[in-house]
Amino acid sequence: MYAAMLNKKLVLAVDEACLVNARQKKLNRDNYHCPHCNKKVILVMSEQKAAFFKHLVKYSNLMGEKEEHHQSKMLLKSALTAAGFPAEVEIPLAEGQLRADVLATAKLAFEVQCAPLSQQEFNHRHQLYQKIGVKDIWIVGQRHYLKRRLKRTQLIFFRQNKAWGNYYLEINPQRNRFCLKYNVLEEPVANKLIYQSKSFVLDELGIKDFWRFKPFKKEYSLNIATQRKYLRQQIMQKTKLGLKIGEMLYERKLTLDDLPDKVFATWRNPGERDRVSDFLQK
Known about the structure:
Blueprint: E1 3-6, E2 9-12, H1 13-21, E3 32-33, E4 40-44, E5 52-55, H2 65-82, E6 88-93, E7 98-105, E8 108-113, H3 119-131, E9 135-140, E10 159-161, E11 165-172, E12 177-186, E13 193-201, H4 204-211, H5 224-237, H6 240-251, H7 275-281
Parallel strand pairs: 8-9
Antiparallel strand pairs: 1-2, 3-4, 4-5, 6-7, 7-8, 10-11, 11-12, 12-13
């Protein structure tokens, strides 16, 4: 679709793309609508062909993972292109063994993951990227959004760097935004998380802001008494964690009160073994 309605006027995709490239307007900040059905459309820019408009397919819950995945790829590709990257979608790599969702440059790919993904499949794809020397950045859809309790299936999507610590990326095509959750840490015993977050618009400025984002990382505090209380409850309720630690304490002829405060005073990286088990093993 090469034309859309904007403020009750028909505009051409190529003209809107020129305005974006000239920085006279921001990518997809305007509300474009289809001249036929009046549904929302987005501007898609490409270095390979003329700019065009595409319907923004809405989805609900997890019934539209294919639509969510497709729309996320197109929005991400469009934003990267506007930011100056030679981005392309669905590019075969590694002699056809791998297909990059969005290849931003010859050495950088984005994988948009909306559906379930096994550890085995992730490892296969990640290792192929490593083999061909392409850095793979994973950005997840709503199924995998990070909340306050860590799921084991989310661990494969974490990355780490000096500026952001442990970080996690999420995309929301309905809102035309993506979110960076950074400085992510897990409680010493429980699978509860704490993190900071920053949202970016999926346009050229959002991509550039994301790339140079250098936040102030907070120093999180812990309540040692609360951590002890949680572990005591786990032992009394005979949960999987409680049984494991209870058995380790029994074997060493220790009680919960014998554990030093330092065990409950240190955050851990997501997915690391709990601090109590780590202490008792040593």
